[in-house]
Fold this protein.
Amino acid sequence: MNADFRSDTVTVASPAMRSAMASADVGDDVYGEDPTVNRLQDHVAALTGKEAALFLTSGTQSNLAALLAHCQRGDEFIIGSEYHIFLNEAAGAAAFGGASPWPVEVDANGSLTPDAVRAAVREPDQHHPVSRLLCLENTVNGRVQPVDLVDKLAATGQDCDLAVHLDGARLFNAAVASGVDIDAFLDHVDTVSLCLSKGLGAPAGTVLAGDRATIDRAFRARKMLGGGMRQVGHLAAAGLHALEHNIDRLADDHARAERIAEGFRAIDALSLTQDTNMVWVTPPAEHHDDLVAHLESEGLSACFWKPTMRFVTHLDIDDAQVEALIDTFQRFFADRT
């Protein structure tokens, strides 16, 4: 049985989503004339409790546009040392915006502390960059950052005269796991980036939400980054369909990840963690390569990093595939104990 656990980015649009895309009303979005894009942006602004929103091609472009909107050249942004903007977005803020990251260590849950944020803010001095922005993330490698913590961190940032941006690529996962709406995380957050092409299952697109002035600056940055799109309502329609149909079902992904973790915990040789839709597994080093070969021989894909592998559930993973993964692991280790 084939199953792709590499990421929730590998999903394909459902027939209903494709139908919505095909029938979308479109216009020229660079001129602000695409009615479906405008409807998506208005919908996300309402969901987040923000004044405005902007549709962008990807999470990386959305985060970069946000940083360019908040920071000038020579400014510094404070960010968790494991966060995506710092590690996995090709240093775009530095390369394109001249903004420098100041990474702060996070704990085992991927969390910053208010004291660490406050300590990272630069004193006014001609020798120092200007601390301008605090970048948060939720989830962090699948791990939920609780509402009260995000609220305290963002309030601390604002108290230190920092703008606050939240990379919410999987914020809907955090919200579903916490039993709240996404706006619960956003009281003191200035901008938030929401990816549509991960757990929500759209083929592309991210929406950045915030106050009108910041979104206007991000709109200009989007153009500079080559993200001005024309009749893109076909993609926006996929995003709207995802927001209207695929949020609550994220709980199914979480339940399947919990089932995988349960099955893996029956294997004494494994060390693992699980939160929301991600399972992180560290097999004995001497078995890693053979385990990968065994999984691949049975049509099972994941991120087979060393020493720790990652398995991600999503809307194209069903219960049978979950059980096949567990069975494959258990058979492999049964021969080695």
Observations:
- The two ends are 25 Å apart (CA to CA).
